[in-house]
Amino acid sequence: MVDRVVAGPDYIASAAAFRYRPARKARGKGSAMSAESQARETASFGYREVALEAKQDLVDDVFTKVAGRYDLMNDLMSAGLHRLWKEALVTRLAPPRGRRGFSVLDLAGGTGDVAARIVARSRGAARVTVLDVNAAMLEVGRARAAARGDADRIAFIEGNAETLSFPDRSFDAATIAFGIRNVPRIDRALAEAFRVLRPGGRFLCLEFSAVDLPGMARLYDLYSFNVIPALGRVVTGDGAPYQYLVESIRRFPNQARFAEMLREAGFSRVGYDNLTGGVAAIHSGVRL
Ligand SMILES: C[S@@+](CC[C@H](N)C(=O)[O-])C[C@H]1O[C@@H](n2cnc3c(N)ncnc32)[C@H](O)[C@@H]1O
Questions:
Q1: Poorest-pLDDT segment among 203-207, 242-246, 255-259
Q2: Average pLDDT, whole number, for the chain?
Q3: Under DSSP, is residue 202 helix (H, G, I), strand (E, B) or coil?
Q4: Which of 1, 2, 59 best tests ligand 1's pocket when mutated (most atoms within 8 Å of CB)?
Q5: Mean pLDDT over residues 267-288, rounded?
Q6: How far is CA 116 from CA 12, 129, 154, 202, 213, in A?
Q7: Percent of the chain with pLDDT over 70
Q8: Would you say the CB of residue 242 lies under 6 angstroms from ligand 1?
């Protein structure tokens, strides 16, 4: 799960293409949105520009294909680094130990890797709801949680981060790890995360970001595009999901732009920390 993203003006511009863009409003008589204008709503699927409505299904295919080998591939691709990054996320979250009922929503939580770490860090006190749109990823997560004895601490719920079914102000914290770049309408998912947080609740996002070390960027680039899809082919029998992975990372907004998106969603005290020279970053914000 490693790739390089180059920060720069063109990269920042590409972030705009990734975001939800409402079709232009028709004026005057017959102002209903035409099929043609609706078709203009697009999102990036890796380097491809696809109809906004098509992106979720394409992403879903990717994770259905890799679910059984997802965690193994993360270890192989990142040489175990993803574990350190997730631990860094949980350290920033600092779930209180012994405070029963501290409730966390882990968006796009997949196989529940982050949820397991939150529960462990809180010494079993936290309750985590893993929400993910992909049933295959959740199934792997459910089985693992049951095997660890965590089934009563982690709930696995199928749902879309863009349209959460939870009431307003229902969680103490919300996390999302390597998930937000897969969501077609990032702005909607951020607005929903804000809505379901209690006042004072924190949002933490771990995501691949823009490498800020010039020497490292080239090596990272070579590694990402040459090794990762090949590794995916060997381990899962299909390199395409991993080609999507490395491309999607490049299309994701850089640190500054993503911080701006958090502010636009209503979060205060927005900031970020780079990990491993910007290969990944943790963004945070608070609902006041
Ligand atoms: C790279 S995985 C990350 C899984 C997990 N958070 C982790 O760090 O191991 C991305 C996850 O995002 C999920 N996802 C994609 N679009 C989503 C959406 N709109 N709502 C909820 N989950 C989504 C995928 O199904 C997948 O499980």
A1: 242-246
A2: 86
A3: strand
A4: 59
A5: 97
A6: 34, 11, 8, 19, 32
A7: 86
A8: no
**Does 183 sit in the ligand 1 pocket, CB within 6 Å?**
yes
| Whether residue 18 has pLDDT greater than 90 | no
Q: How far apart are alpha carbons 196 and 179 in whole angstroms?
A: 18
Which residues, at least 6 apart from 119, have a Cβ–Cβ distance to it below 8 Å?
126, 128, 150, 153, 154
56 Cα nearest atom in ligand 1: 16
**pTM for this entry:** 0.86
How far apart, in whole angstroms, are the C-alpha atoms of residue 286 and residue 257? 17
Contact 23, 41 (CB under 8 A): yes
The response to whether residue 110 sits with its C-beta less than 6 Å from ligand 1 reads yes
State in Å, rounded, how far the first CA of the chain is from the last one: 33
CATH of domain 1-288: 3.40.50.150
Strand 154-158 vs strand 197-208: parallel, antiparallel, or unpaired? unpaired
CA distance 164 to 97: 27
Q: CA 89 to CA 66: how far, in whole Å?
A: 24
Return the domain boundaries, the chain.
Answer: 1-288
